[in-house]
Design a protein that fits this description.
single chain, 191 residues, 11 helices, 0% strand, elongated
């Protein structure tokens, strides 16, 4: 593809043309600048260009937050942690502490998970553990979901993601939760 045509395609994709986005993503996939797994992740969370690029091979979008959490788990720990961070941050932005949402703990769990995403070392796992296991907490505390997503095993990670996504869907509405998740995860996957 000539440079001028490629730049025009990329410009139209940035302006929201899903057909142009699909063509640009397909070109990146062929060139080795994008992996099939990342394209599938973007399609799973509903990115229109990724869904068009994959066509019938695009994964089905799960109907509920639990199914979405389970589908995200297939893409690895980092994706699950990112999903829990996005969902918890969105709820924290609108949560009312008078109704039991602990903003300080939610922010600490989100910060610990983000630090682990930036550097997945043992020290950051321990920092997430310090936030997530202060007392008798467990992954069912939505405020702590990002920290628990770091701590895993897989079953704990899945529960943390389910709690975070269900809480965000309940507080913000399923469509808003999915749009935020799409923006964050597809943006990251397709960068």
């Amino acid at each position: 593809m000539a440079d001028t045509a490629h730049r025009d395609l990329e410009r139209r994709a940035r302006q929201g043309d899903p057909t142009a986005a699909a063509r640009a993503l397909s070109a990146r996939l062929r060139a080795g600048a994008l992996t099939q797994e990342r394209l599938r992740l973007a399609a799973l969370v509903g990115d229109p260009g990724a869904r068009l690029a994959l066509g019938p091979a695009a994964p089905a979008e799960p109907a509920d937050p639990d199914g979405l959490a389970a589908a995200l788990q297939a893409f690895g720990v980092e994706v699950v942690v990112r999903a829990a961070v996005v969902a918890t941050r969105a709820v924290t932005a609108v949560a009312d502490p008078r109704q039991g949402w602990d903003l300080a703990r939610a922010r600490a769990a989100t910060a610990a998970a983000e630090a682990w995403l930036a550097c997945p070392c043992d020290a950051h796992v321990e920092a997430a553990r310090a936030v997530g296991q202060e007392g008798d907490e467990d992954p069912a505390y939505a405020e702590l979901a990002p920290a628990w997503a770091v701590l895993g095993p897989a079953s704990t990670r899945l529960l943390a993601a389910e709690v975070a996504l269900n809480t965000a869907a309940g507080e913000l509405g399923d469509d808003v939760m999915r749009r935020g998740l799409r923006r964050a995860l597809a943006g990251w996957a397709l960068e």
